[in-house]
Structure formats: structure tokens, C-alpha cells
Design brief:
The chain is an alpha/beta fold and about 100 residues long. It is about 20% helix and about 15% strand. The chain is built from two helices and three strands; from the N terminus they run βαβαβ. Strands 1-2-3 form a three-stranded parallel beta sheet, with no helix packed on it. Helix 2 links the parallel strand 2 and strand 3 (about 60-65). Mean pLDDT is about 80; it is low at about 85-95.
């Protein structure tokens, strides 16, 4: 059996994945690996999944890492450009469950 794997580098809040999930018909048989370096955005994505408010994020095998993806093992500096506290992300427009 062929493995179905989706890798999302820079997941943000799951918006890109939600579009791709519909296009590629991603379901529970897929393994999804998401990487998001911003800890505040990462927490927002986790909350979106846990809320079960967004059907496209429900019943999926999503594995998230609060890490950046880079071309070497030496690492890279990551800056939040002065952000010191969580930002409200009220503009999320994922389709909600009916």
C-alpha cells in the first residue's frame, strides 16, 4: 500500500492545508506533518484542531511541530519582529462544521 503524506512547512493556522485538503481529497488515511516556527501561531493551530470547529481539520492524522524547516542542521535565527505576546487571529476563514 502506498503511503499518503502531506508536508506543510509554515502551517500558519491551517489555512493552506485546508485548501489543499479539499483539492487533494486528504482524509484520515493521510499522514500530515506540519511545521510552524512562531509559537503563538502554532498554539492557534493546535487550538483550531482541538476545537473541532473546522471540519477540514477534524478526523485527520495531523502531526504538528513548533519548529522551523531549514536547509541545514546548523539552524537559523528566527525572529518574531518584536512580538512579545500572543496576537489575536480573528481573521481565520476555514469552513466550519454545519
Amino acid at each position: 500500500m502506498t503511503r499518503k503524506i502531506f508536508i506543510d512547512c509554515g502551517t500558519h493556522l491551517g489555512m493552506g492545508f485546508s485548501k489543499c485538503a479539499e483539492i487533494f481529497r486528504i482524509d484520515h488515511e493521510w499522514e500530515i506533518f506540519g511545521f510552524e516556527a512562531n509559537p503563538y501561531v502554532f498554539d492557534g493551530y493546535v487550538k483550531n484542531i482541538e476545537s473541532e470547529k473546522y471540519s477540514v481539520l477534524s478526523d485527520k492524522n495531523i502531526n504538528l511541530e513548533n519548529k522551523a524547516v531549514w536547509i541545514s542542521d546548523e539552524g537559523i535565527k528566527f525572529s518574531l519582529r518584536g512580538i512579545t505576546k500572543p496576537v489575536s487571529y480573528t481573521h481565520l476563514t476555514l469552513p466550519t462544521k454545519a
